[in-house]
């Protein structure tokens, strides 16, 4: 969804949003039940995931270093995400945007940690969110409220839901 904003080559070199420190485990992607069903047993990707309430469970930290990162089960270090678009979580397709609950109101916010976008969104990203993408995310969250995260300091609000 953000292919007009994100450069494929930058993402290929980065992969930051597909690896998680312990403190970022709240951010691991959420999968809908039918995809969990498919990916939690032998499947076409040759990788079986472990899930809890739709959220992928990662493990395998080898040190006590809080900065240590563990890749998502479905990240190939050379090819990137191995999932087809239809199996990729909505959460991942809208990154670095997040839908969040701030004081009881839904907002679309930008995570400050994507090196391609930076902490301040470009006008192109703001336009994309305000001219359709934001409404699409709000609409998706109506049927998938589990993707709504509690607002955290540092996330920059781009759009507030008005209806
Ligand atoms: S953090 Fe940003 S630049 Fe890095 S892979 Fe994710 S979307 Fe691409
Ligand atoms: S599902 Fe794919 S895009 Fe999402 S975190 Fe895992 S590897 Fe990255």
Sequence of secondary-structure elements: HEHEEEEEHEEHEE
Strand proportion, as a percent range, falls in: 15-25%
Could you say which structural class the secondary elements and strand pairing correspond to? alpha+beta
Largest sheet: 4 strands, mixed
Structure annotation, total helices: 4
* Spans where pLDDT lies below 50 across 5 or more residues: none
The N- to C-terminal Cα distance equals 23 Å
Shape: globular
Structural domain count = 2
List the strand order in the largest sheet.
Answer: 9-7-8-10
Bound molecules: iron/sulfur cluster
Percent helix, as a range, is 10-25%
Q: Would you report the number of β strands?
A: 10
Mean pLDDT: 91
Using only C-alpha atoms, the radius of gyration works out to: 16 Å
Descriptive labels:
alpha+beta, 4 helices, globular, binds iron/sulfur cluster
């Amino acid at each position: 969804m953000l292919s007009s904003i994100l450069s494929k080559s930058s993402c290929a070199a980065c992969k930051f949003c597909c690896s998680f420190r312990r403190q970022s485990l709240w951010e691991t992607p959420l999968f809908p039940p039918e995809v969990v069903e498919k990916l939690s047993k032998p499947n076409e990707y040759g990788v079986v995931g472990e899930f809890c309430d739709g959220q992928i469970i990662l493990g395998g930290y080898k040190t006590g270093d809080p900065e240590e990162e563990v890749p998502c089960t479905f990240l190939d270090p050379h090819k990137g995400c191995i999932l087809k678009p239809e199996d990729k979580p909505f959460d991942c397709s809208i990154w670095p945007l997040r839908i969040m609950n701030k004081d009881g109101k839904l907002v679309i916010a930008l995570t400050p940690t994507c090196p391609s976008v930076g902490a301040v969104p470009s006008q192109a990203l703001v336009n994309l969110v305000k001219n359709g993408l934001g409404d699409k995310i709000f609409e998706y969250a109506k049927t998938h409220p589990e993707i709504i995260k509690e607002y955290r300091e540092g996330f920059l609000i781009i759009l507030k839901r008005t209806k």
